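Q: Two folds, back to back.
A: First:
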Amino acid sequence: MMNSMKASYMKSKFIITILVSLVICTLLSGCVPRSIIDELGITHTIGIDEENGKLTATVLYPNYTNSNKASVIKTAADNPSTLKSNLGHKSQSQIVLGQIRTFVLGDSYSKAGISRVLETICKDATIGNITFVVSDTKAEDIIKGLKPAPPLYLSHLLETSVLHEGTPETNIHTLVSQYYGSGIDIYLPNISFDNEKQLVVSGLSIFKGEKLKLTISNKEAFLFKLMNDKNKSGYYDITLPTKDNQKGKDNDKEQKHNRDKKQGDIDGKQPGNENNFALKSLYGKHKITLHKKGNENTISMNLTLNVELKGIPESIQIEKKEDYQYLKKSMEKIIANDIETLLKKLQQNEVDPFGFGIIYRSESKEWNEKEFYQKIYPKMAFSVKTDLILRQLGVGE
């Protein structure tokens, strides 16, 4: 009898709990403002420029009622907070910024300083994890060039470049950390149009404080990625020095080429450099260490990289131990020298995207950022060692 009453009570309590939950869910759903997607201007890409002392914003948003059309709106304001309001006055749809994926910073604006826009974005809770890029022209030109492309074209281009093509990874979190942090400088992907007006990722833009100071090439950006990011996927061009036993063969080939030209050989010499080939980085690890000895400070970089070779010069017979070692050691020396050259270039331009200041600060009792970059960083020495593990040699390609 008692068990039956207890079971009935528990069943009634369960039913009441379900009913109360349904009522609460109904009430809460009624409090959420509804938005019809066809009535919204959902933008994924926005460009920021500086013109005549004013901030300008150029916005591209798709028209979901007509998949073949996209709208571009441009407005100007004295401060970032007013830009959104001014954009709304020019649009037939409510401008929604919550789906922004990419901010394009124009060249002139980046050189003038990005702090005002960055600090405003950090305070906007509706904006999620976005990516910033720097254009080598006006951001307006980039936005207009994207009009015929799919809505998320630029976002997907950057994602692919980071995952597979050697571009260092950046997002709003890394940017804010670099901007507000001490001992490191901001770096952002650089984009531009090539000779065929195709949008491409064209390197890395490096700031000093809030202002653009230096732009490096894709090749240099990949070296930076190898020594900075966990993901080390990408390609790197290698040109081997001519071996002593190859010089005679090269002379013979040149003489044969000259004879063929005299005989009217229409094929002639094959284009390109036969000692040049592509190295594909698969995965690896790096370690950066600061060595202090008196007033001398040396940054030691060690890189272990698993690679695949995309083609091997005909002069290299990889099955021979001598040629294998020559190939391996030559590539290691080339990459190490190129990284050291990049480090010195960054040092000469007084920028520190690697965050050597953070490393120095962690091992020093006293830290003064201004003193570090004026007196210590310019005199730092660099030592780079690389160890390549050849996983695949491109045989049969």
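A: Second:
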Amino acid sequence: MTQVDRCKKDKKRSVRKKIEPSLFLSFSSFSIQGLPEDNWQTYDNGHQQWDYVEFGYRYGSWKRFYRALYTKPVYEGQQGLLEFARPDNIIITNIGINPEVIASLSDEKQKETIKAEGVINNHHQRGADELPHRGIKDFGFEELPFKRFAANSAFYYCMVISFFLFETFKEDVLEEVVAVGSYATTVRRKALDFAAKIIKTGGEIILKVTQAVMNTLRFKNLWERCQNPIPIVV
């Protein structure tokens, strides 16, 4: 093979590598534009709506078809989006194609997961598994304080137990004040970091707060809930 032939072959390889992703997008757009309007459906999770359409897709080198869902959000916050301004997204999955993927789930969960709405919801929650790690690091420490494993292990387990109690406190007491998914820094800033005065009088200890704090935090309700904790069933 001459040097010229090698250059031509390398050029074809580079062009092929650049063209394949664009062919995937243009093929998807072409297929979607040709689908009937009756195929489009709407998924609403209570906070956002998506227009979506489902079809089968197989890439040039694939041996089987996969499920493809083309989605477009209807809103950005509370602002509706015009058709041309909606960002699009393509989800390709083998859920519903390969039954072994969801074989370990219950029958009820399998029915929910295999639906198009379930696939979209799980796709949006794909990063949720990392949030507990972020939450516990925000609650405690990213680095353990001791040099030996046993001491760090005991410290870590105490931090996990404390984090569990903190999460239950948010659900049982602070639900009306802060979102259940709030991190420890947000809870400290909203529910704990406020001015107060402790007064001793008549044999009683009184915590005095401003009327604004009383109204914003619904302090009376919080106090009553703290005095009547939900029992933990063992």
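Q: And?
A: Residues 56 and 184 are 44 Å apart (CA to CA).
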